């Protein structure tokens, strides 16, 4: 069954080599009680360790059931110890933090025996050694003889073929020794029992066979076995320790050191507490900022203009430090680089087409508070003091269109974001409103253009409400004079036009001011009118005589008589034009006066013949609907080349991203500082785990003797650090959560902000996982060190 063939083993310490076994050969029967005698240093314990697979021979061969072990790997030796060998040690080598039942079950646990089966077997063997009534005790509650009985029960539990006993009675009194030897003698009836002892009387009294060792050699054998060659049929069942077993083993060990574990977990949690508080404050302040922004910026429009910045490129890291050719600022190169600013891809030309306007008209109206169009058109508006009528300079008067929800301008925008100070909100396309600033102020230029007494200290609302103006269409406003056109009448008094039946009366119906809780206004102080009025004017302007004449003339301004810029060899400049034009604007920037237009396109725009707006502003109901709006706008660009895309400007998103970026930057810096304590915790966990390895060295030896693999030992200590890391994470999150209460009280008293520190559950879970990960990392090296311990040396430790 078991054969040692020419086995040699030596140990080297420095330059000194000692031979423990010198070419010994022994054969053992399937069931017999063999006692190995010899003085200290004779090699008997080394032989026992080689037979048990705790140590490996230098040369020769150990044959088990006809199978050679020369090619055995570490995992094979682990399985051999678990399947075929049971150890009985002089110092018992029980795991102190486990019950005696758990100690007995450990070998079966490594074999993968089911919980019910291994418990039944443990009860059976404990009853066999007379300890059925002590099953739930721990080793420290038993006498020496009882602990040795537990060791015997553990050796028998996995039903091994070989029982190896190393001085099993060395620590017992005579009476107890006799009881233990009787028990071992009984076991030897069914198994091979090899016992190492210094006591020849004990060997002669109980053993079937006595083998004498001296100086690493066998000098006598009272009953040698005949060497029999058998066909190898030996199969090993691999061992494995589940992670749950490792957790259970480490958990019980940790429970015996509650204070140390608690202090370690608390010290390790300090970094988690710091980071959790920082993330809580960051999360809370971010919510406060977003809440403020959603209120402050919710009425900020998404704007589509004819020229837009491509923020995807402009906001790239280094966009301000490098140009498109990767040239850096303030270069020392002695070269000049030609640059065409019109080729800058950061600026994008939007081609707004009727198809795109139709696409915008189909947007879900429930998402919008209003839509505003900025058009390049000069409205021909007159004002009268009852005696004379003169043109209103709409640019000076800051005429602008207010946002309207639909074509009928049933707008909720004005009602939602502006207070009505006097009169009523616009109800008809011909209703105008005066917009004043927060102090009810109005620029004197606007007042002067409207014909109001701008030198007065104050102007009553009644002087403004109901004030009327007249809109004159192009065919009435301009008349042909020779080859050019002029204003129909004397510009110092256009009462003939003012009082004509074709003039459209406009009236200021109300005075409005932005609401107090709205920090910003999208309309400046001036006069606001509906886009319906502008579209009506444009529609009639496109069919007017002056516009038709201008469309047919590519070289000259038909109103001023000036040659357009870029037209060669044409210098006609008749004097029939008028120096005074009607002015105008939409309040969105300077517009070209018909008199000053230097291109055909400018002239047509100034005469109100351009239907395509210069820009469109979409006013979302809130931040949530804004996301739906920009998604809708993005769908237009799907599949289109860059030059055909329509790029919009989302100012609210720009401000939000900027503030979020600043907040994230501050958070990262603070977290980086707090993370220093995590590094300290990492080192501390490594030290604590190393101490635990030293404390549990004998336990490591016992587990290896029972068949635990190196990776199982690593798993045991990884499980221990997992438990500590989990406790640390939970403790850190719990303390951080409690600290948010006084933190919020302090912030409330200092800033009047409520509930700022808010720990995000996702952050909490992440920090617990981080804590576990860091403690496992900290204990990784000590765990590997534990796995590499020599089981023989580990079993000798105290």
UniProtKB/TrEMBL annotation:
<protein>
    <submittedName>
        <fullName>ATP-binding cassette domain-containing protein</fullName>
    </submittedName>
</protein>
<keyword id="KW-0067">ATP-binding</keyword>
<keyword id="KW-0547">Nucleotide-binding</keyword>
